[in-house]
Structures are given as structure tokens and as C-alpha cells.
UniProtKB/TrEMBL annotation:
Topology versus the membrane: Multi-pass membrane protein
Annotated ranges, domain G-protein coupled receptors family 1 profile: 22-288
Family annotation (PROSITE patterns): G_PROTEIN_RECEP_F1_2 (PS50262)
Organism: Ornithorhynchus anatinus
Protein's UniProt name: Vomeronasal type-1 receptor
Compartments in which it is found: Cell membrane
Record GO biological process: response to pheromone; sensory perception of chemical stimulus
Function per UniProt: Putative pheromone receptor.
Residues covered by region (Disordered): 305-332
GO molecular-function terms, A-Z: pheromone binding; pheromone receptor activity
The keyword Glycoprotein is assigned to this record: yes
Main subcellular localisation: membrane
Record's keyword terms, sorted: Cell membrane, G-protein coupled receptor, Glycoprotein, Membrane, Pheromone response, Receptor, Transducer, Transmembrane, Transmembrane helix
Coiled coil segments of this chain: none
């Protein structure tokens, strides 16, 4: 067990450290742009700043909590502390999914061609960002309120097997069976709805970039290049991120479902779910840093990475393919 816990500690420490470093660089970069370079400000900066803040809180609740309890330190949070930790963890998870969905939907509208039905939403798209973020906060703060009022944690259960799962203060259940069923149903519907929206937006962006690539290739068929076009690189980035998201999301769902069927629960599944939940907040900032030339890159990690083409101007004056914000949805 010592070796397994040591591996969990090292992975959690790496996730938390790299994730906090990347998200901190993003926050400082956006603050610098807002104060010293307002001419470079873009509508997506507000969405990305919000996503970055949510990532930081998620990493602190997932990674730091896992790190503390995986080292064998006695759980001193008790009922109230575990309720607060579970509440914050679930709220930030939901906000991450919704914010990433908003980002992908906004970008899909932004790059839509003038002949598309979505083109008429371009002038109004920026005005929907703040109301959408406020709605997300209200939705999730109220959705998970039952965790603070009507749940019981396994710490108070005499079964020693169930008490093991209090390692992350993550296993909570309601006193009423129907409340559990309704709550799980609402969360499942929420996840499915926003995942479908993100899938549609990502697929739509891939189609737009593919058609744009075909048009450019047809116009400039005389001057062929051995290097892949920016549109192709952007499309590959989208597909890579979508694949990573669905892989992490599906693995987390499978492990979560499997954990409900196991009678003798242990830390292994809880460790896996917790570490998977921190993968997306730890990975997404580095994708954005590598893609956005406005944000300085930490030399210790991305110092040698060459800057890509300038990002997409929301006004549509630049090429579609140079946008750095083709980010699909949030995993757990």
C-alpha cells in the first residue's frame, strides 16, 4: 500500500503543481493584457479568465486534498469540512464543463461563415458571455445546495470499509433514496446536455476549417507546400483535445459506475476518479499557453516552443485557422 500511495502522491503533486503553474501564468497574462495592452483584449479572454479561475479552485480541492489525505494525515475536516469540500468540488466541476461549452460555442459562432445561419449571432455573441457565466454560477450553487443540508458522509458510518472512502471526503449520500435518484438524474442530464453541445460545436468547427482548407487549397493549388496548413494544424488540435476530453470523461464515468457495483470499496477507484478529475484543469492551461502568443511561456516548460500564427480577431479580419481558442469540453 505504501508504494501505491506514494505513486498517488507523486501524480497528484505533479498535476497540482503543473496545473497551478499553467493557470497562474494564464491569469497573469490576461491581467497584463487588460492593464497594459488593452488593444489586444479579446471577448474570449473573459471566458478563459473564468475557466482559469475555476481550474485553480478545482486543482486546489482535487489535487491538494488528494495530496493531504493520501499522505495518511488524519482527516480533521469532519462533517462540516467534508460538506464544504464536496460542495466546492462539485460546483467547480460543473462550472468547468459549462464554461468550456460556452467557449466552444462562442468560437463556433465566431468562425461561422457569413452564409451560415449562425452568422447573425456574431454581433450579439459577446453580450451573452456575462449573463451566461452568471447563470452558470446561480445554477450550480443552487443545484448542489442539498450537499450542505441533506447529506450524510461516510465518516459517520460505522462500516470500516466505507470509512476508507472519506480519504477525499468525496463519497456522500442523501438520507432519502428518491432524493439520490433525482439528484443523479439532474447531474446526468446536465452533463449530457453540455457534452452534446460541445460535441456539436467541435464538429462544426472541424467542418468549417475543413471547408476553408479546401477553398484555400483550390485557390492556391499552384503553390504547394510540404508543410501542413494552419487550418490542418488547428483541426488536429481540435481533434486531439476532443479525444482527450472524451477519453478522460468516459474513463471517469466507467470507473464511477464500476465503483457503485463494488461491495468492498478501497482507495484505488477513488484515487483514479480524483486524479482523472484533475487532468483537464492541469492540461488545458498549457494548451492555451502554447497556442496564444500574447501569453508569456515559462522557459522551464515551453521556452523552446515556437509561437503559432496570430490568434483570430473576433471581428473576423484574420484567418480562421489562427485562433488559439478551439477548446472542447471539460472533463471531470
Amino acid at each position: 500500500m505504501f508504494i501505491e500511495e506514494l505513486v498517488v502522491v507523486l501524480v497528484a503533486f505533479t498535476q497540482t503543481g503543473m496545473g497551478l503553474l499553467g493557470n497562474s501564468v494564464l491569469v497573469l497574462g490576461y491581467v497584463r493584457i487588460l492593464i497594459f495592452q488593452p488593444q489586444l483584449k479579446k471577448p474570449t479572454d473573459l471566458i478563459l479568465t473564468h475557466l482559469t479561475a475555476v481550474n485553480i479552485v478545482t486543482l486546489l480541492t482535487h489535487g491538494a486534498t488528494a495530496l493531504v489525505f493520501a499522505t495518511g494525515i488524519e482527516n480533521r475536516l469532519e462533517d462540516f469540512g467534508c460538506h464544504i469540500t464536496g460542495y466546492i468540488r462539485r460546483v467547480t466541476r460543473g462550472l468547468s464543463i459549462c464554461t468550456t461549452c460556452l467557449l466552444s460555442m462562442f468560437q463556433a459562432v465566431t468562425i461561422s461563415p457569413s452564409t451560415s445561419r449562425w452568422a447573425r449571432l456574431k454581433p450579439k455573441a459577446s453580450g451573452y458571455i456575462i449573463p451566461s457565466l452568471v447563470f452558470f454560477w446561480v445554477l450550480h450553487l443552487s443545484m448542489y445546495m442539498n450537499i450542505l443540508t441533506t447529506t450524510v458522509v461516510f465518516q459517520n458510518v460505522t462500516n470500516p470499509v466505507n470509512r476508507l472512502n472519506m480519504k477525499y471526503c468525496s463519497d456522500m449520500f442523501s438520507k432519502k433514496y428518491l432524493t439520490n435518484v433525482a439528484f443523479v438524474g439532474v447531474i446526468t442530464f446536465r452533463d449530457g446536455f453540455f457534452v452534446l453541445l460541445m460535441s456539436w460545436a467541435s464538429g462544426y468547427m472541424v467542418i468549417v476549417l475543413y471547408r476553408h482548407h479546401k477553398q484555400v487549397q483550390h485557390i492556391h493549388s499552384v503553390s504547394l507546400s510540404t508543410h501542413s496548413s494552419p487550418e490542418t494544424r488547428a483541426t488536429h488540435t481540435i481533434l486531439l483535445l476532443v479525444t482527450c476530453f472524451f477519453s478522460i470523461y468516459c474513463m471517469s464515468c466507467i470507473i464511477s459506475l464500476a465503483s457503485t457495483q463494488v461491495e468492498n470499496k478501497n482507495f484505488r477507484m477513488t484515487d483514479a476518479i480524483n486524479l482523472l478529475g484533475a487532468c483537464y484543469p492541469a492540461l488545458s492551461p498549457w494548451v492555451l499557453i502554447q497556442s496564444d502568443p500574447r501569453v508569456p511561456r515559462p522557459r522551464c516548460v515551453l521556452g523552446k516552443v515556437r509561437s503559432p500564427s496570430p490568434p483570430l480577431d473576433p471581428s473576423g479580419k484574420h484567418q480562421v485557422s489562427s485562433s488559439p481558442y478551439f477548446l472542447p469540453q471539460a472533463p471531470l
